[in-house]
Write a structure and sequence with these properties.
Blueprint lengths: L8 H14 L12 H26 L4 H24 L13 H27 L5 H27 L7 H29 L7 H20 L12 H27 L4 H27 L7 H17 L3 H13 L5 H16 L4 H7 L2 H11 L5 E7 L5 E4 L12 H4 L10 E2 L3 E3 L4 E11 L6 E10 L5
Antiparallel strand pairs: 1-2, 1-6, 3-5, 4-5, 5-6
Length: 469
């Protein structure tokens, strides 16, 4: 069982330090190779194994089944997409080329082997409703798949670490912050296992082990642990996010301790832990991003990845017939609009937004172009969180979700792309998107009519920055 050999804190520290020191100057990269996203995505695979286990337990125990099925479907989709991207490269995930390192490729093959067993059982659960298959899903996810993805993550970190970009201390802090998300799912799975009697999902002993590790890791991140190379938070913003995580942890910690002591958690206790995992998963993801961007030239590190994504992936979407035809049609329709007309349309949009929706908003969201944008967003496993396009006046033509305004003509995404016929791609600064709860940056790419050669609109991609790091 995985539970019998879960690394203790000291072992984890030693292992992480060794990995952080393994890179040599020869490993330094001069061109974008997707190193940060490879490391991030491989760690995400480890987390997904525990998300699968926790969701499988909920289905087996018949608690919050609908939400658990959604978690399972999302994890299955993301796992396959990420694994394929790590092996073969994926411009959609900002992984620029296929893996070449023999050691990493061996680790990928080991993950594929374990995943094939899990995926078969997942198919039985999700498509055939065979809840008996959840036991196999939980068992393999907790042991073989977890072990294989953990080795892969370590091998990728060793292969792609660059000591000139990331110090040993930074590597340790990032490992700790990223690992908190996985530990949350492990606690959730254990709590479900205790409540339902599914020992393959977890026991009192595993819950105690995971919660202790979570508590100590969070303390190390908040206060620093200089003896092993972990420094205090690098900025007030990181400090604030860790304090928020601590505040959330304090709320559920008594529930965890009671479950460890009594072995009889209530349904409310299980629900509280699930809510904690959802909330802190996003919070710790943002914390990881801030660690990556702290110090030195870190504030611009994401821009290299954004530029690569624009050059290798975004450019492929700009001549799609569905996009070109939609832009041509709206440009013709809006050819006679004056600025006063544009302002009236924008005010109407904003008024409907305040009311929670309306005919104008619904009509745009129901367009075929908007459907296509949503399909494109779903295909990026969280890398792109929003896509929309404007016509040659800066008015929205299609969008994957609601935007705060209808007219973008007074913003950089329009001014620095096609206004005055510039035809340049614009990259925004990173900022926290309150609605989605993630740090984002936008790529705004001008769209040219393939027949006339005129700039007819702008396609805007909101990119989840932490997925690039």
């Amino acid at each position: 069982m995985l539970f019998s050999h879960l690394p203790k804190l000291a072992t984890y520290l030693a292992t992480s330090a060794a990995i952080a020191c393994a890179a040599t100057p020869a490993a330094a990269k001069t061109a974008f190779d997707g190193s940060k996203i490879r490391v991030n995505m491989s760690n995400t695979l480890v987390m997904l194994t525990q998300q699968i286990s926790a969701a499988g337990c909920s289905i087996k125990a018949a608690t919050n089944v609908e939400a658990a099925r959604e978690d399972l479907e999302a994890a299955r989709y993301d796992f396959q997409l990420i694994l394929d991207g790590l092996e073969n490269g994926s411009p959609a995930l900002s992984i620029p080329f296929a893996e070449k390192d023999p050691r990493v490729l061996r680790a990928i093959n080991a993950v594929k082997k374990a995943w094939s067993d899990v995926d078969g059982s997942l198919g039985a659960v999700l498509t055939e409703g065979d809840t008996s298959a959840t036991s196999e899903v939980i068992t393999i996810s907790q042991k073989a798949l977890y072990d294989a993805t953990s080795i892969l993550a370590s091998d990728i970190l060793t292969a792609y670490s660059n000591p000139f970009e990331m110090s040993q201390s930074d590597a340790l802090s990032l490992s700790f912050a990223g690992r908190q998300r996985m530990l949350g799912y492990q606690m959730s799975s254990s709590l479900c296992g205790i409540a339902s009697g599914l020992t393959e999902a977890g026991t009192q002993e595993t819950l105690k082990e995971y919660s202790t590790l979570y508590d100590r890791s969070l303390s190390a991140l908040q206060n620093g642990l200089p003896a092993v190379g972990i420094q205090p938070p690098p900025s007030e913003l990181v400090d604030g996010m860790l304090a928020q995580a601590q505040s959330e942890w304090v709320k559920v910690k008594p529930i965890v301790e009671a479950a460890v002591e009594t072995g009889a958690p209530s349904e409310d206790a299980v629900d509280a832990m699930n809510s904690f995992v959802r909330d802190t998963k996003l919070l710790m993801g943002n914390t990881v991003t801030l660690y990556m961007l702290a110090g030195g030239d870190g504030g611009d590190v994401y821009k290299v990845a954004l530029e690569s994504y624009a050059e290798n992936e975004v450019v492929k979407w700009l001549d799609e017939p569905i996009l070109i035809e939609a832009l041509r049609a709206q440009n013709a329709k809006h050819a006679s609009l004056e600025q006063s007309d544009i302002d009236t349309l924008d005010l109407k949009w904003r008024a409907q937004m305040k009311e929670g929706g309306g005919e104008m908003i619904d009509g745009l969201l129901e367009r075929p172009l908007s459907d296509w944008f949503r399909e494109r967003v779903d295909a990026t496993a969280g890398l792109v969180v929003e896509i929309f396009a404007t016509d040659n006046l800066g008015l929205n033509v299609g969008q994957s979700g609601e935007t705060g305004d209808y007219w973008q003509g007074d913003e950089a995404k329009y001014i620095h792309t096609i206004k005055d016929n510039q035809g340049t791609t614009h990259f925004s600064d990173m900022e926290l998107d309150v609605e989605n709860g993630v740090y984002q940056a936008q790529i705004s790419a001008p769209v040219k009519d393939p027949e006339s050669g005129e700039w007819i609109g702008v396609m805007i991609f909101s990119v989840n920055v932490q997925s690039l790091l």
